[in-house]
Specification:
Blueprint: H1 3-58, H2 61-70
């Protein structure tokens, strides 16, 4: 080969080497970003499960009944305060 053909080939080789280094850098950067997103996803799933457990605990009938009796002073109505409706009666 003569000098005229070596320079473009060397230039092309250098350009390919730089593109390879850049693509490896981008792949590593994206992999790190993916790992961080997966860690965040796991944290959010744990938080979601804790919130669902807390919601189920707060919505239990016994807790609501105790709050109604203690905090609001509510009582279950007795039979003298209960009215029954029958179908077709006016």
């Amino acid at each position: 080969m003569n000098d005229r053909t070596i320079f473009p080939v060397l230039t092309l080789l250098m350009l390919c080497a730089l593109m390879l280094v850049n693509s490896q850098y981008q792949a590593r950067r994206l992999f790190i970003e993916l790992e961080r997103a997966q860690v965040r996803q796991r944290e959010l799933e744990i938080t979601w499960n804790q919130l669902q457990l807390e919601q189920s605990q707060l919505a239990k009938h016994a807790r609501i009944d105790a709050l109604a009796k203690n905090a609001l002073g509510m009582l279950v109505p007795g039979s003298n305060r209960t009215q029954y409706l029958t179908a077709g009666a006016r």
